[in-house]
Amino acid sequence: MINFNKKFIAALSLASLTFSTGCNEILDEQPRGIYTPEDFTTERGISQGVTSLYRQLRLLYGNGYWLNANMTGTDEATWAQSADGNFKDLDMSGGAGSINSNTFPTSMVWGSVFPSINTANGIIENGSKAGIAESLISEARFFRSFYYLLLVQTYGGVPLDLGSGELAFNINPKTSSTRNTVSEVYTKAIFPGLVKAIENLPTNPRVTGGVTKNVARLYLSKAYLTYAWWLQNPNNIPTYPETSRTDPDGHNAQWYFQKAYDIAMEGINNPGPYVLMPTYYDINRGDNDRNKECMLYADHTETSAYFNEGVIQASYGDGWSPNNFAAWMLTFNYTNLKSSTTSGTWTNASSVQRAATQSLGRPWTRMAPTIEVIKNTFADKTLDSRYDGTFVTTYRGNWNKEGTGLTNVQTLYNANNLPINPGDAVLSFLNDDSQLPTYPSNAGQSGIGAGTLPGRADWVVAPNGISRIVYPGIWKIGTYRTDNGNGLGFPNPSLTRPFVAAKFSEFYLLAAEAAVKGASGSMSARDLVNVLRARAGKWVWSVSGNAPKIQDNSAAMVAATPSVITIDYILAERSREYFGEGYRWFDLVRTQTWAQKSATYSIGGVNYGNHTPQTVTRNIQNFHYLRPIPQGQLDAMEVSADVKAKYQNPGY
């Protein structure tokens, strides 16, 4: 079994933190050599424990393997050319790999959150005796519920007893474990903690990024919604440990769908400090991080390597938590793009160099969007701003930046031997397949196998030509810095942006989903969806055009919304809002549509010049809707083989 005592101490000693008491103050992180259970008898120790719960967010959110676990293998993404087994296992396709108890990305939640759950247990158990205000204790209540919600969605039933009784603080190593049922986890560990957190948390955050009543409402609504689906079980997906799908409190699925709707509407009608940003672009632009739509995030900073928990300047980041490096995974190697310094004679000049800007950053080529997500999910690229505000579809020349060797070169020659200047498009991904580029059979003059269209100076790739090696990158979570000067900046260390875990916009989609499932209230599913669709129609900037674009397509977006909203439509809207943020696997598993949505996908091959879409089939079975219990957990349990076998989820 997990050695909860040692892991609990280790987790806190990595970043034992203290809070300032003033509202909207920044977390004040103070180094500690060791953090022991005795600290839970003191006000200062408990306050530090609360802060460690926030730090825990960095071990998941912003980790590129978190995106891998929750996007690869869904309709949103597949493995890319430089992927290792972690990505191919999650894709479950074409003999490339399969999920098992040794698969790393599926073990991330289990391997990281139990120490924080035990920390929360200690705070809740000892806080009042140490003179801690209930509002601060309720921050721990929130996080315990939050982490149990991640666990139960991922693995099914999980242990509530870490060694000293259910939901009790444990300081003694234990080598055995018993899993509670799904219904017990929800009704004992998730719902009560979130309800009490809503009662006692402040309306405005105590510290920047701190949890509030409305953050707790968001997760209570999501928990009610997810549990309602579990009770209903429309596609007969098995649960584990085996139990009847009845609620201990006697409520049915419809009761919980209604509760999910009601709590989400409370969140909408009592927003506190949170609002919807006026445009989709405003949510995700790097200079607007920590905006009022962002409710919970794993924070990072450009100003201090210590507070960032990672190098922030020229040296390479290690690609590991607690760093933020998620954007690397969805970034192809654009640095192989080539232009020429002379007209007529090709000289292979590197025209798009690695830079610390939101459209570029460090390329790892580990994950690629499927052709279907580009063509179908984001079919509307004209009225709807979300495609433009999510992907990098134009790669622009930056060879003139300091340190490139081409600083004084004003003009290069690109596709069709046409001239380009710094800032011009070197490569563009086309919006549709109405024009068929002429592609080379290999890397060609572009260096990446891109094609040409008559009269265009930019290399081009059509949606059907997207491959595992060349595809639109991710803009919304990309690198952003303020210290680049006239050079390329520092693109190689981890990102210094926060990675957002929760947004105010999700209230609308949670309520809409509950409404589709029969809940009723003041706003219909179509009303709720259209709030976000109207916002998506408002443009202030074109990422692809790198220029202002003042356009309001709200009326047309609303008019295009179907009169009858379905779960499929809700899921498509969720993908348009949250692509690249690690929501997708949870959404498809909750709604029991993973196999339906993700059984096949299309993409080109792993070599430059291979633009022929290949249709790939995934082997998603019902038991895959639960991730395997990690092998390390089973190996650490000092119990009989048959007990270990029963502890593991079926099918693994």
Topology:
Blueprint: H1 4-14, E1 17-18, E2 28-29, H2 43-55, H3 64-71, E3 77-79, H4 85-91, H5 108-126, H6 134-155, H7 182-200, H8 213-232, H9 253-269, H10 280-284, E4 294-298, H11 305-308, H12 326-329, E5 338-339, E6 349-350, E7 367-369, H13 371-377, E8 391-392, E9 394-396, E10 412-413, E11 419-420, E12 425-429, E13 459-461, E14 473-474, E15 499-503, H14 506-516, H15 525-536, E16 538-542, E17 547-552, H16 554-559, H17 567-578, H18 584-590, H19 594-598, E18 600-603, E19 614-617, H20 631-636, H21 641-647
Parallel strand pairs: 12-13
Antiparallel strand pairs: 1-2, 3-7, 4-15, 5-6, 8-14, 9-12, 10-11, 16-17, 18-19
Helix pairs in contact: 1-5, 2-5, 2-6, 5-6, 6-7, 6-8, 7-8, 8-9, 8-14, 9-14, 14-15, 14-17
Describe the structure.
It is a single chain. The model is unreliable at 1-33 (pLDDT under 50). The protein has 21 helices and 19 strands. The chain is α+β, with helices and mostly antiparallel strands. The radius of gyration is 25 Å and the shape is globular. The strands form 9 sheets. It has a 3-stranded mixed β-sheet, with no helix packed on it. It has helices at 4-14, 43-55, 64-71, 85-91, 108-126, 134-155, 182-200, 213-232, 253-269, 280-284, 305-308, 326-329, 371-377, 506-516, 525-536, 554-559, 567-578, 584-590, 594-598, 631-636, 641-647; strands at residues 17-18, 28-29, 77-79, 294-298, 338-339, 349-350, 367-369, 391-392, 394-396, 412-413, 419-420, 425-429, 459-461, 473-474, 499-503, 538-542, 547-552, 600-603, 614-617.
